[in-house]
Amino acid sequence: MSKVAFMFPGQGAQYIGMGKDFYEQCPECREVFDLASKASGLDVPALCFEENEQINITEYTQIAMLATEVAMLTAVQNKGYKPDVTAGLSLGEYGALAASGVMSLEDVFKLVRKRGIYMQEAVPTGGAMTAVLGLDTKVIEDTLATIDGIVGIANYNCPGQIVITGEEKAVAEAGEKLQEAGAKRCVPLKVSGPFHSPMLAGAGEKLGVELENVEIKGIEIPYIANVTADYVTDPAMVKDLLKTQVSASVKWQQTVERMIADGVTTFVEIGPGKTLSGFMKKINKDMTVINIEKVEDLEKLAQLSQ
Questions:
Q1: Which amino acids are annotated catalytic?
Q2: Phi, then psi, of 29 in degrees rounded to 5
Q3: Distance from C-alpha of 83 to C-alpha of 5, rounded to nearest angstrom
């Protein structure tokens, strides 16, 4: 029997107004935003719906994105739908945690607020990220191994799209070598730091301290971790995986391929934008993909019952 996966996007898909229709039309969704405000000490609805510059600053982006994703997830759950498996890209993994039931929503929100702050604080000067387009993964990995300095893979997004991260000089040198090796383009990203690189390990350590106070429950819905691209079968693994995730590569393509290998044929992207749906077209265009971004999108869920 075919399976359904819920997937949650990461930082970068945010925009002013995301989730506003859910907030206005669904009391349970409004409660999610209010809980996010209480847990974070921020006015999350104002952050998401009113014009402001904070929404694109990491320490605010993360809680805004997660509140929106969990509100949308709540609306989906209220329709009676649940996945066979769940996963999320980077920050989106916390959406998957919410769906999995492995920790309380309040704890998820508190953690992500701290995560955003710690990642923002840990950003060193001289860090950079670049998207490498149209080059084989093995060629990228081999080329990075020849570069002096800190540079590695931040995201395995999909075939033909890898993001590299690290010291600005090393990332720039890698970009030049990768173009010489045949990359179609190397596009520097407008980000505030070298995320998912060893340069952010300090943020992971601080997050680890916060995680010590979080109660980990049983895993109700199976979920796949970014760090391993594998199922988290032991709740005791959750804290170490989240601590490591801040500075480790996000194995998104491998995560999706694992779900497909296990019989998932329908992927529901829950959250702002269609980033993960775009990746899916390049990973396996034969899959069914549903986007939940607006209240009217909930009607698409009827496909899951057919």
A1: 90, 196
A2: -70, -40
A3: 5
- Count the Cβ atoms, other than its own, within 10 Å of residue 187: 15
Whole-angstrom distance, CA of residue 271 vs CA of residue 127:
28
CATH number at residue 20: 3.40.366.10
Nearest to 96 by CA among 116, 72, 119, 70: 70
DSSP state of 264: E
At position 148, the amino acid (one-letter code) is: D
- Predicted confidence at residue 103, as pLDDT, reads 95
Neighbours of 305 (CB within 10 A): 7
Per-residue pLDDT tens digits for 112-137? 999 999 998 887 677 899 999 999 99
Among the listed residues 272, 271, 296, 292, the one whose alpha carbon sits nearest the alpha carbon of residue 25: 296
Neighbours of 28 (CB within 10 A): 12
Positive or negative torsion for Cα 71, 75, 76, 77: positive
Question: What is the CATH number for 161?
Answer: 3.30.70.250
Query: Which SS3 state, helix, strand or coil, does residue 129 take?
Result: strand
Total domains in the chain come to 2
Residue listed under structure tokens 């990768």: 178
Residue 123's Cβ-side half-sphere holds a number of Cα atoms within 13 Å equal to 18
